[in-house]
User: Which sequence fits this backbone?
């Protein structure tokens, strides 16, 4: 079956972007690569950009620095109406100066109305530089984006004080482009539509005077994480006597590793000898205030609760539906922890 | 070696409580502290000073009360401090503050390093460092954990993805320091009295910085606050292990508990 016929069947046509127009226009997504793939946040931004674009009557443009045609197509499948591809081999690996030159020159010419970057290592250092270069301002680490349609301005939600609450901030109408960095994992992934087609325009940049100024001596891809002291830990997975044996306890360690969190235990787990006393949580141990506390096979005695009452979100896994821990948990799972924990690890990796 | 450390003063979170139910912040004690991440930045600067010698200069924008944060910086080890304040500067936003800091750094002159925190706790803003690097057209290294200077070269260890990278650059360089990168020191006994009683904080207004009202016009406007949903305890997930696991992970993601 040929592609045209298929497209007709699917009722899809190639998106044709009308580039004529005055002033600042369109929503631009700065694509990011991780290895040979697009970063998930890039796809999430395309999803959000599509929604904003339909309100504004704008197109979603993606710019891919150092990628290839295959990745450019992926951007289209996920919602880009046009892709600008810098395919110069010199741009394959990220370095600030050449990337900022490529993006800065392109945006100076195309005059975007809105630019979305990931709130990642790379996006976090590109966006503010672009803001200064284009005489604009950036709003960073956003977890929500809506439009003030009357002014065509973005209204951004920015968590403050470690997420205790958020400030809602809008761009002033005279700011162009409106540049934001978007936190990964906040917006959903868009539907991947292989029948979507649009133009990929290959662009070049003059890299004269844009040599990297920082020399990378050594990269360690996966660093041993240093343990965080329990009172400061953001995520804690805690074991109780209900984990049964050392093997059960090992599951708790695996879950903690999958969440990049810390392992702790109740007095029950300490008494069983699975974990050191200094990792005990409760009245006779550490007082913790993590964003997430997962209690596995812990009954929830008052002395234990004493140590976790400031936790922001508590998950309890216990076989006994009347265990007191369920009264203080945001989410409770009545089940055998040895069955549920492996399933959670799998779901996290999916 | 001259190192400039921009510092921001913020409301101390230990002095307020956030009520999700009332969607309000209740300030019990109005006290101010140095943005903790800026203290990490100052610590990186002071460690360079400890090992190879350096002149560390703290600069801050804001209301007259910010003087206190700068004196604390001097008690910690900064050699000089500049407060950029007047009516316009006290009210500007992140972009205006960045412009004021840039002009002040220009006026101080001859710097080798600028070291900032990666982000500010009270606004979530993470733009100052790279913004300044672009203004001066200099190299930048973000998310730094440790930095040293030897034989005129800067070496830094920075977070990079799930690991880290070691990098090198020739000054002038701008560094942003990762939150919690180090344990900031306590003020030095002998310096505390001098910092609060004897030493001067130089004060500059917008005019001295060559900025006018239009330069400091805010580019953003506050539209209020949002609060996380009130906690509802006691929800149960049921189903097969796979079902409850999928439900749980989805819920944790939706609530931004995990990424
Ligand atoms: C002065 C004092 C100070 C104390 N300080 C502390 C303290 O700091 N920290 C602390 O934790 N305790 C402390 N305690 C002890 C506390 O009272 C409890 O005895 C202790 O917390 C119980 O530990 P546990 O929940 O692990 O064990 P248990 O109470 O034995 O509970 C085990 C739980 O696991 C569940 N379970 C069993 N099998 C499974 C399975 N396969 N899957 C899922 N669930 C399962 C059971 O239903 C049960 O609820 C203190 C006590 C005193 C008197």
Assistant:
């Amino acid at each position: 079956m040929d592609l045209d016929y298929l497209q007709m069947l699917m009722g899809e046509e190639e998106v044709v972007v009308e580039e004529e127009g005055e002033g600042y226009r369109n929503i631009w997504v700065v694509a990011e690569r991780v290895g040979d793939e697009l970063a998930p946040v890039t796809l999430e931004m395309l999803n959000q950009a599509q929604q904003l674009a339909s309100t504004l009557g704008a197109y979603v443009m993606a710019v891919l620095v150092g990628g290839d045609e295959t990745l450019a197509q992926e951007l289209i499948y996920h919602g880009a109406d046009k892709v600008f591809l810098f395919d110069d081999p010199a741009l394959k690996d990220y370095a600030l100066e050449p990337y900022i030159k490529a993006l800065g020159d392109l945006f100076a010419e195309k005059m975007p109305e809105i630019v979305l970057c990931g709130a990642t290592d790379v996006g976090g250092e590109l966006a503010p530089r672009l803001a200064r270069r284009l005489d604009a301002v950036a709003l960073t680490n956003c977890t929500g984006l809506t439009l003030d349609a009357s002014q065509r301005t973005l209204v951004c939600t920015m968590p403050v004080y470690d997420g205790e609450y958020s400030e809602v901030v809008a761009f002033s109408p005279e700011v162009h482009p409106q540049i934001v960095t978007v936190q990964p994992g906040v917006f959903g992934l868009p539907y991947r539509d292989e029948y979507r087609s649009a133009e990929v325009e290959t662009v070049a940049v003059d890299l004269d005077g844009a040599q990297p100024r920082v020399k990378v001596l050594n990269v360690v891809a996966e660093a041993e994480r240093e343990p965080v002291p329990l009172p400061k830990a953001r995520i804690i997975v805690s074991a109780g006597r209900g984990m049964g044996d050392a093997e059960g306890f090992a599951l708790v360690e695996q879950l903690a590793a999958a969440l990049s969190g810390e392992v702790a235990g109740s007095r029950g787990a300490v008494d069983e000898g699975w974990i050191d006393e200094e990792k005990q949580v409760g009245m006779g141990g550490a007082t913790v205030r993590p964003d997430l506390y997962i209690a596995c096979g812990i009954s929830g005695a008052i002395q234990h609760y004493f140590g976790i009452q400031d936790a922001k979100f508590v998950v309890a896994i216990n076989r006994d539906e009347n265990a007191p821990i369920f009264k203080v948990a945001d989410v409770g799972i009545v089940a055998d922890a040895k069955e549920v924990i492996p399933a959670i690890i799998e779901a996290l990796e999916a | 070696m001259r190192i400039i450390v921009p510092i921001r003063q913020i409301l101390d979170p230990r002095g307020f409580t956030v009520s999700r139910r009332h969607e309000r912040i209740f300030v019990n004690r109005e006290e101010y502290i140095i943005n903790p991440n800026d203290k990490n930045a100052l610590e990186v600067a002071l460690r360079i000073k400890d090992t190879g010698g350096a002149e560390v200069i703290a600069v801050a924008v804001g209301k007259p009360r910010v003087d206190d944060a700068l004196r604390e910086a001097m008690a910690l080890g900064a050699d000089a401090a500049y407060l950029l304040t007047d009516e316009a500067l006290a009210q500007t936003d992140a972009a205006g503050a960045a412009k004021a800091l840039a002009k002040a750094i220009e006026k101080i002159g001859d710097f080798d390093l600028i070291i900032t925190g990666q982000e500010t706790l009270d606004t979530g803003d993470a733009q100052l460092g790279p913004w300044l690097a672009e203004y001066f057209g200099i190299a930048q290294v973000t998310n730094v954990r440790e930095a040293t200077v030897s034989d005129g070269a800067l070496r830094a260890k920075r977070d990079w993805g799930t690991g880290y990278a070691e990098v090198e650059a020739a000054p002038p360089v701008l560094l942003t320091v990762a939150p919690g990168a180090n344990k900031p020191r306590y003020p030095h006994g002998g310096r505390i009295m001098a910092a609060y009683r004897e030493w001067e904080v130089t004060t500059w207004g917008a005019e001295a910085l060559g900025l006018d009202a239009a330069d400091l016009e805010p580019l953003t406007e506050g539209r209020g606050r949002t609060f996380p949903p009130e906690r509802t305890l006691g929800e149960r997930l049921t189903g097969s292990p796979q079902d409850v696991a999928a439900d749980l992970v989805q819920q944790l993601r939706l609530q931004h508990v995990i990424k």
